[in-house]
TrEMBL record:
GO terms for biological process: lactate catabolic process. The keyword Flavoprotein applies. The keyword Repeat does not apply. Its cofactor is FAD. This is FAD/FMN-containing dehydrogenase. GO terms for molecular function: D-lactate dehydrogenase (cytochrome) activity; D-lactate dehydrogenase (NAD+) activity; FAD binding; iron-sulfur cluster binding; metal ion binding. Residues 614-645 form the 4Fe-4S ferredoxin-type domain. It holds the Pfam family FAD-oxidase_C. InterPro entries: 4Fe4S_Fe-S-bd, 4Fe4S_Fe_S_CS, FAD-bd_oxidored_4_C, FAD-bd_PCMH, FAD-bd_PCMH-like_sf, FAD-bd_PCMH_sub1, FAD-bd_PCMH_sub2, FAD-linked_Oxase-like_C. Residues 46-271 form the FAD-binding PCMH-type domain. Coiled coil: none annotated. Keywords: FAD, Flavoprotein, Iron, Iron-sulfur, Metal-binding, Oxidoreductase.
C-alpha cells in the first residue's frame, strides 16, 4: 500500500490506514488536503470534503476497504468519473475511487455478445475497444469520454438514443459485488425456484419475493408510463411475471447505497455501419419540441434538442469552424434546433431515412433542414451536442448554467406543456436559462443561468426545485430523468408514497443495515434515524467562492464547474498530459483549479495557507503549460495563465538559479545563434554542470550552419522592424517570415525550407531577425518581463505590418502565443500561421508526384485549431501529395519542461503514451509541426522527424 499524505492522519483515518496495511491492501490511501479538496466537488453545486480517498487495485482491495471502514466507524462511498450533477458521490467518510486503477476490460465473448469489465472502465474506452470488433455499448451519455461504467450503473444512465436502446440496466447481465459485511457475491437473475445460500443476497431475495407481489398494484400506479422510469431501487422492473428477480435492476440506479460493484458483465450489440443526421431549425424552443411527434414516424435513432442559447455558446468550440458552413445562413434565425440521427447498414438506408425526415420536417413549421452523412460533420454535430453540458457551464459572464433541476423527464406528449411551465417557474425568479436534451423521450436538460456566489441565488435552489418536482409529477414524469438523484433523494418519498418508501428502506436495511454505503442518499435503512440528505443541507460550492470573489486574476479557477472534460480517457486527446500519465486528479486542470480556490479561501479565512500553497506548487510543477485546457475545457479554465500569476505572486526571493537563468535564456539563445560553433562548444563543456547546478538535461544544440547563412542561402532578404521595403517590391507577391527564438537558434533549416517553398510559390521572401516572444519568462511567472517583451513585440509587429505584407509565423508554440497570450495584439496584427498562409494560396504550389506522408499536429495548436490538420492535408493534395494526419496528444516536452531533471521521467512517460509507437511506425515519412515534438522524437526514439514544409521543399528539390 502506498500512502499519500502531508502529515500523519489522526483518528479513524489513521486506524483505517493501519488496518489496510495489515490486510495487505495494494492500492493507495490518500489523506492529503490536496486530494480531499479535489474530491470535494463533482459537476454539481455542492462541496463536501471526504475524510480520505482510497484507490483500490482489486476486488480484494475493495473488500479490505469495506471491512476497514466499517471497523473504524467511517462510511464508504464509491466514486467513478466524478461527473455527477447532484452530489451523488460527495461524502464525508471514505471515498472509494475505482477510476484510477480498476479500469481494465477483462474479457470479451463475441459469440455471446458480452464483455466483462472493471468499474473504472470509461464508456468511450469500451466502445473504442469494441469498434474494430463490430460491437458497441449503446447507452450514450454526453460525458462518455470520462464517465465510468461503474458510475453509469450507479445512476442507470441512458442518454442519447434511449428510445431505441434503453438504459444501462437493460445491458447489465451480472455483477460481482462487495457487500456491507465484506463478503462478495455475483448477482444476476434469480429464478423463483432458486435456493440461495445464507447471506445478504438471500435475505434480500426473500424480502422481494414476499413483498413485490403484494405491492404490484401500488408499484404500477406510481410508475410513470415513459422511457425514463423510476430508476434507483427499480421496483417496477425488478420482478418478471414468472417470479424471476432481476437483481441487476435493483443495483442499477442505487448510487452505491447498496453495495460496491467490483466487476460487471455487460451485453453489447452490433455496431451500425453508417450514420447520418438531419438538423432542423424552428422559430423557438416550444415550436421545436412540439414538432417531435411529427418526426417520430420517420423513426430516427434519436432526436436531440438544443436551444439558441446553447448553439450560440457552441460557436466558441473547436467544432464550429467545420459546422458553420454546413448549417449556413438558413439556421441563423432559428431559436430551437432538433438533431435527428439515423443509422443503417449502408448509405442508401441513410439517404432514405434523411429524405423521410425532411418530408416530415416540411409539415412541422421548420425554418430550415440540413441533412448530412459526412462522418466528420456528424461527429462534429455530436461533439457540439455532447459539449452542451460544459457549454452551459460557461454561461454568460458570471452567470453560469447551473445543474440542480437539469434532467427532468415527462412523457413526450406532455413535453411542451411541461417546458412552458418550467419556463414560467424560472421567469418568476428572474432567471435566464439554456435548454437541450433528448426530445424523443421527453427528457429536457434545463440549466438556469445563476451566480451561486450570490446568497440570493443560492436561496432560489429550494423553491425552484420544489416547484419543478411538483410540475414534473403533475405531468406524469420525474424531476430526475437521467442523471440520478444524489441529494435530490429527499423527493423519493414524494414520488414513491409512504408504503413503497418504507419498502425501499427495508431493502436498504437488508443490504446495508448500518448505512455504511453512501449514507444520506436516496433512502436510509429501516430501523435507523440517519437522515436523508436535503438539497439545501449540503454545503454549496458557491458559498466558498463568494469569499474569494474579489480575486479576479483567478476567476477562471472558480469557473471550473467540475464537468470533468480534463479526465478524458483517450491519451491521443491533448488535455491534460500530466493527468493522462498519472491518472492523479490532483494533477489535472480541475484539480489545480480546486487547489487555487482553496488557497485563495485559506488566505481570506486565516486557514493553513502554507500547507495549501506547498501542495499547489507541487501540483502546478507538473503542469506543462501546454494550454490545451485553455481551448478544450468547455469553460476554458486556463491553468497556465493562473500558474504564471501564482508563481509571480508566491515565488519571491525563493527563485532558483535555474529560474534566474531561464529569465535570461531567450536573449542568450539569440546571441548563441550568432556564434553557433562557440555556443555548442560551451554547451558541451557545461553539460555536466547544467545537470548538477541548474538541473537541466538534454539541451538542444544550436543549428551548426547558422540562422543567417541558411536564410541567405534560401535567397531571403533580412528585414529589420522599421526598415523600409525596397522600391521595386510587388506587395501582392511578397511575404515577411517571422523568425522566432525556437527555430532561429536551434532548427533554422525549417525556416530555410519555408523560404524556399514560398519562393517556389512565386513570392519574394523577407525574414526578420530572431524575435523575442517571452514564452519562457511567462511560464516561469516573470510577468513584468513578459509584459515588456510583449510591448516590444507589438511595436515590432506594427512596424512590419505597416509594409502591407502578410506576416507569417512557422512555429506553432509561438503562433499560439500570439493568439492566446498576447492580449494587446489587435486582430489586424496577428501573424498568420504557416498552414493558413499556404492553404489560402495553394493554387500557387508547384505540382509534384504522389508520395505519401503522415503528420502529427502540435498539441497546443491542434487542441485550439483542429482545422490546421485539414489545411495541411489540403496543402499536400494541392501539391500532388498524400498526407494522413493524426492526433497523438502531448509529446512530453513543452518548452523546458522535458529538460528539467525532475520531470525527465514524466516527459518520457508522456512520450510513451502515444508518440513512441507512432514514431516507430512512421520513421522516414512521419512529419511533425512542433519543434518540441521533433526534439522529443530525437531524444527518446533517435528519430529525425521533419516539418511538413521540409517535406514539400525536399519533394520540390528532387523535381
Amino acid at each position: 500500500m502506498k500512502a499519500d499524505r502531508t502529515k500523519v492522519p489522526e483518528g479513524p483515518v489513521a486506524d483505517l490506514t493501519r488496518k489496510l496495511v495489515v490486510d495487505g491492501f495494494s492500492g493507495q490511501i490518500r489523506t492529503s488536503r490536496a486530494v480531499r479538496i479535489v474530491t470535494a466537488t463533482d459537476n454539481s453545486i455542492y462541496y463536501r470534503e471526504p475524510a480520505c480517498v482510497v484507490e483500490p487495485k482489486s476486488t480484494d482491495d475493495i473488500r479490505a476497504a469495506v471491512r476497514g471502514a466499517a471497523a473504524v466507524g467511517l462510511s464508504l462511498t464509491p466514486r467513478g468519473g466524478g461527473t455527477g450533477t447532484n452530489g451523488q458521490s460527495l461524502a464525508q467518510g471514505v471515498v472509494l475511487d475505482t477510476s484510477r486503477f480498476m479500469n481494465r476490460i477483462l474479457s470479451f465473448d463475441a459469440k455471446a455478445g458480452v464483455v466483462r469489465v472493471q468499474p473504472g472502465v470509461v464508456l468511450d474506452q469500451l466502445n473504442d475497444y469494441l469498434k474494430p470488433l463490430g460491437f458497441f455499448f449503446p447507452p450514450t451519455v454526453s460525458t462518455s469520454s470520462r464517465a465510468t461504467l461503474g458510475g453509469m450503473v450507479a445512476t442507470d444512465a441512458s442518454g442519447k438514443g434511449s428510445r431505441h436502446f434503453g438504459r444501462t440496466s437493460d445491458y447489465l447481465m451480472s455483477a460481482e459485488l462487495v457487500l456491507a459485511d465484506g463478503t462478495t457475491a455475483e448477482i444476476c437473475d434469480v429464478l423463483a425456484s432458486d435456493v440461495l445460500p445464507a447471506g445478504i443476497i438471500k435475505e434480500v431475495a426473500t424480502l422481494l419475493r414476499d413483498e413485490l407481489p403484494q405491492q404490484a398494484e401500488e408499484i404500477a400506479r406510481i410508475s410513470p408510463m415513459m422511457n425514463r422510469g423510476l430508476t434507483g431501487y427499480n421496483l417496477n422492473e425488478l420482478r418478471k411475471p414468472d417470479g424471476t428477480l432481476r437483481l441487476t435492476k435493483l443495483l442499477a440506479g442505487s448510487e452505491g447505497t447498496l453495495a460496491v460493484t467490483a466487476e460487471m458483465t455487460l451485453k453489447v450489440i452490433p455496431l451500425p455501419k453508417c450514420f447520418g443526421m438531419a438538423i432542423i431549425g424552428y422559430a423557438d424552443s416550444l415550436t421545436a419540441l412540439g414538432a417531435v411527434s411529427e418526426l417520430l414516424p420517420a423513426d430516427p435513432q434519436a432526436i436531440e434538442f438544443l436551444d439558441d442559447v446553447t448553439v450560440d455558446l457552441g460557436k466558441t468550440t473547436p467544432y464550429w469552424p467545420l459546422l458553420e458552413p454546413v448549417l449556413g445562413a438558413a439556421m441563423a434565425r432559428c431559436g430551437g434546433f432538433l438533431f435527428a440521427e439515423v443509422t443503417g447498414q449502408n448509405y442508401e438506408e441513410i439517404d432514405r431515412q434523411l429524405a423521410a425526415l425532411k418530408r416530415a420536417a416540411g409539415h412541422s413549421r421548420a425554418l430550415g433542414v440540413v441533412g448530412t452523412r459526412d462522418p466528420e460533420v456528424v461527429a462534429a454535430l455530436n461533439g457540439l451536442r455532447k459539449d452542451a453540458v460544459g457549454l452551459m457551464g460557461k454561461g454568460r459572464g458570471r452567470f453560469k448554467g447551473t445543474a440542480f433541476v437539469e434532467d427532468a423527464a415527462v412523457p413526450p406528449q406532455n413535453l411542451v406543456t411541461f417546458v412552458a411551465g418550467f419556463r414560467d417557474i424560472l421567469d418568476s425568479h428572474g432567471l435566464d436559462y439554456g435548454m437541450y436534451g433528448h426530445a424523443d423521450v421527453g427528457c429536457v436538460h434545463v440549466r438556469p443561468l445563476m451566480d451561486m456566489r450570490l446568497p440570493t441565488h443560492r436561496e432560489k435552489i429550494r423553491p425552484i426545485s420544489d416547484a419543478v418536482a411538483r410540475l414534473a409529477q403533475e405531468q406524469g414524469g420525474l424531476i430526475w430523468g437521467e442523471h440520478g438523484k444524489g441529494v435530490r433523494g429527499e423527493y423519493v418519498a414524494q414520488y414513491f408514497g409512504p408504503v413503497l418508501f418504507n419498502l425501499l428502506r427495508r431493502i436498504k436495511a437488508a443490504f446495508d443495515p448500518s448505512n455504511l454505503f453512501n449514507p444520506g442518499k436516496l433512502v436510509t435503512a429501516e430501523g435507523t434515524s440517519f437522515p436523508v440528505d436535503r438539497i439545501d443541507s449540503v454545503g454549496f460550492r458557491g458559498a466558498r467562492d463568494e469569499i474569494i470573489a474579489a480575486h479576479v486574476d483567478y476567476e477562471k479557477a472558480t469557473d471550473c464547474n467540475g464537468n470533468g472534460s480534463c479526465f478524458h480517457w483517450d491519451t491521443s486527446q491533448e488535455m491534460c498530459p500530466s493527468y493522462k500519465v498519472t491518472r492523479d486528479r490532483v494533477q489535472s486542470p480541475k484539480g489545480r483549479a480546486a487547489l487555487l480556490r482553496d488557497w485563495l479561501h485559506a488566505r481570506e479565512t486565516d486557514g493553513d495557507v502554507q500547507t495549501i500553497e506547498h501542495a499547489l506548487h507541487q501540483s502546478l510543477a507538473t503542469c506543462l503549460s501546454c494550454k490545451a485546457c485553455t481551448s478544450q475545457c468547455p469553460v476554458q479554465v486556463d491553468i497556465p495563465t493562473m500558474k504564471a500569476r501564482f508563481l509571480a505572486e508566491t515565488s519571491g526571493a525563493r527563485r532558483s538559479l535555474r529560474d534566474r537563468l531561464i529569465r535570461r535564456m531567450e536573449p542568450l539563445t539569440i546571441l548563441g545563434a550568432r556564434i553557433p560553433a562557440l555556443a555548442n562548444a560551451i554547451l558541451s563543456l557545461g553539460r555536466d554542470g547544467a545537470a548538477r547546478l541548474l538541473k537541466l538535461v538534454d539541451l538542444p544544440e544550436f543549428d551548426r550552419v547558422g540562422f543567417d547563412r541558411r536564410l541567405s542561402t534560401a535567397e531571403s532578404t533580412r528585414l529589420v522592424p522599421g526598415q523600409t521595403l525596397p522600391a521595386n517590391v510587388a506587395k501582392d507577391r511578397a511575404v515577411i517570415l517571422l523568425c522566432d527564438s525556437f527555430l532561429g537558434p536551434f532548427d533554422a533549416k525549417v525556416l530555410e525550407a519555408t523560404a524556399r517553398v514560398m519562393k517556389r510559390m512565386g513570392y519574394r521572401v523577407f525574414h526578420t531577425p530572431i524575435l523575442r516572444n517571452g514564452k519562457a519568462a511567462q511560464v516561469r511567472g516573470y510577468l513584468g518581463d513578459f509584459e515588456r517583451i510583449q510591448a516590444r513585440m507589438l511595436s515590432d509587429l506594427e512596424k512590419l505590418a505597416s509594409t502591407g505584407l502578410p506576416l507569417v509565423s512557422v512555429e506553432p508554440a509561438v503562433t499560439m502565443l500570439f493568439r492566446q497570450d498576447c492580449t494587446t495584439l489587435p486582430n489586424g496584427l496577428l501573424p498568420l500561421p504557416l498552414d493558413r498562409f499556404i492553404a489560402a494560396r495553394a493554387q500557387n504550389l508547384p505540382a509534384a508526384q504522389g508520395q505519401e506522408f503522415r503528420m502529427i499536429g502540435h498539441c497546443t495548436e491542434t487542441s485550439a485549431d483542429p482545422g490546421n490538420l485539414t489545411r495541411w492535408q489540403a496543402i499536400f493534395t494541392a501539391a500532388g501529395l498524400i498526407l494522413q494526419t493524426e492526433r497523438a496528444g502531448c509529446c512530453g516536452m513543452a518548452g523546458l519542461f522535458g529538460h528539467e531533471v525532475e520531470h525527465r521521467e514524466m516527459s518520457r512517460d508522456i512520450f510513451q503514451l502515444n508518440w513512441a509507437d507512432r514514431v516507430a511506425e512512421g520513421r522516414g515519412r512521419l512529419l511533425a509541426t512542433g519543434f518540441s515534438c521533433r526534439s522529443q522524437a530525437k531524444r527518446f526514439a533517435n528519430a529525425e522527424l521533419r516539418h511538413p514544409i521540409q517535406a514539400l521543399e525536399d519533394v520540390y528539390a528532387r523535381d
